[in-house]
Amino acid sequence: MLFEMDALPAQDRYKLLTSTIVPRPIAWVVSMDLQGHLNAAPFSFFNALVGNPPIVGIGIGGRREGDAPGSWKDSGANIRATGQFVVNLVPYDLREQMNITAIEFAASVDELAEAGLSTAPSTKIKPPRIAQSPVALECERFSIVEVDVDRAIVLGRVLAVHVRDDCVLDAARCYIDTPKLDLIGRMHGGGWYARTNNLFETPRIPVSKWVRKT
């Protein structure tokens, strides 16, 4: 079945992308406005894009109902204003807290407090990280790619990475016990997720060992 994206309404284009590009890691973004108020929100249009320099990308958009055209969600507005944010990754045991921070609270509401989460200080930037998250990426704004009047792709340069101690196998060699992180990814529909601890291995094949099957 062929779906011509230009012939579909935006809602159907979204459904096709989110039901086929899975699982998508979740950027649990903590940002801060110019007055020092914190915001936390999850975004599943997210991934690591470049290793050197270390760049992550997050699709942010979709203003609240009733907001003026061109308005950004709080995370996007804060990143525009300060250029700093933390991407926390979401483990299975924090799935409910993550879901609480996805509620469309008013800008004055502290999502972290509503979800019963605590923070830990960052080392390179002002916004703190979520203390309970096993991985946190301290980021500064690298670039913003404008997509529409209220949508953009935020590219962040990773300045520091925090990994929970018990998930580090060899700090000197940067070996991480990835299954132990027990992270989740976004699947299809409104509330389907996947755990990332169901693994199989397929080693890369060096060209010197490649023999084409006939």
> What structural class is derived from the secondary structure elements?
alpha+beta
In round numbers, the mean pLDDT is: 93
Helix content: 10-25%
Biggest sheet, spatial arrangement of strands = 3-2-6-9-10-5-4
Describe the sheet with the most strands: 7 strands, antiparallel
| End-to-end Cα distance | 30 Å
CATH C-level class:
Mainly Beta
| The CATH architecture | Roll
- The rough form would be described as globular
Q: List how many beta strands DSSP finds.
A: 14
The count of domains is: 1
N-to-C SSE string, H for helix and E for strand: HEEEEEHEHHEEEEEEHEE
Q: List low-confidence stretches.
A: none
Estimated share of beta-strand residues: 25-35%
Radius of gyration: 19 Å
What is the CATH third-level topology name? Answer: Pnp Oxidase, Chain A
CATH homologous superfamily descriptor:
Electron Transport, Fmn-binding Protein, Chain A
Q: Helical region count?
A: 5
